[in-house]
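[Q] Does anyone have a clean structure-token version of this?
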Amino acid sequence: MKRTLLFVALFAALFAATIAGPAFALGSNVGVGLHYLHNVGDLKNESLDDLDKNSFGVIGSYQKSPGIFRLEADVEYVFNYLGTDQAMWEPSGWMLTTGMFYGGAGIGIGYRDGDWQKNPWYAIRAGLDFPLTKMDLDVYGAYRFQSAGDLGNVVDDLNSLTLAAVLRFGTGQ
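[A] Here you go.
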């Protein structure tokens, strides 16, 4: 229950930051990118050869910079999660430092096959935000911590390393 409340509180804070207006906003941007996820947990059943520890997705992202921190809301679409032939949606929220080199933490949860995962994931993230002419290229890595929940009979945990590249465009605020 505490995790659900934390998840709701984080998204409420991100929503409030997006509607607070120009007085609150030092800048905002939207982005689209590619995301690679590698599960580091060990498979418990070696006969499950069709499971794949690698997943690939696309990300839609919105960032708001109210001061020294950036608040980010993402939605990711994973095409074939863990080789299960099922797509997964993953909303997430992040609090990140500003600057070219940055770091931060986030929380998210997956939705696949008509159900939310039992456990959200928590993550730490580090990245480089390269300013280009009219856009930025955000390249980052993250480590996600997540217990296996429904998949506990197949994999020890769903901890994963991720790599992403996101092109960001300013919204003019």
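[Q] Thanks! Anything notable?
[A] Residues 1-25 have pLDDT under 50 and may be disordered.
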